[in-house]
């Protein structure tokens, strides 16, 4: 199965790093994105950006993905069949 363009971990990493003013290489697959400064306002911005690219995503769904929001969890959610 291929990952739809724009929702693979590396693309999400670059997008989130830009939003947080961080370097992509400083954000790891399993980091809790809240610990890096990703707050609810930024998540809502990402949700709107991803919807514009065709994702069926809701803020609440991202918040409910396991104990912590991570790149891998979000990528898997965004690319689900």
Commentary on this structure:
By secondary structure, the protein is mostly helical. The protein is built from four helices and no strands. It has helices at 9-20, 40-52, 59-63, 71-78. It starts with 8 loop residues before the first helix and ends with a helix. The relative contact order is 0.21. The mean pLDDT is 90.
| Number of extended strands | 0
Task: Label the structural class.
Answer: mainly alpha
N/C terminus separation: 10 Å
Share of residues in helices = 40-55%
What attributes characterize this protein structure?
single chain; 81 residues; mainly alpha; Non-ribosomal Peptide Synthetase Peptidyl Carrier Protein, Chain A; 4 helices; 0% strand; PP-bd_ACP; ACP-like_sf; Isochorismatase
Please specify the SSE layout and strand pairing.
Layout: H1 9-20, H2 40-52, H3 59-63, H4 71-78
Organism: Kitasatospora cheerisanensis KCTC 2395
Protein name: Isochorismatase
InterPro entries: ACP-like_sf, PP-bd_ACP
What's a quick, concise take on this entry?
By secondary structure, this protein is mostly helical.
């Amino acid at each position: 199965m291929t990952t739809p363009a724009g929702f693979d971990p590396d693309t999400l990493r670059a997008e989130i790093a830009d939003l947080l003013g961080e370097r992509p290489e400083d954000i790891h697959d399993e980091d809790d994105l809240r610990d890096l400064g990703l707050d609810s306002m930024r998540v809502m911005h990402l949700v709107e950006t991803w919807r514009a690219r065709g994702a069926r995503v809701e803020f609440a769904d991202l918040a409910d993905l396991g104990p912590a929001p991570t790149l891998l969890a979000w990528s898997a959610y965004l690319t689900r069949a």
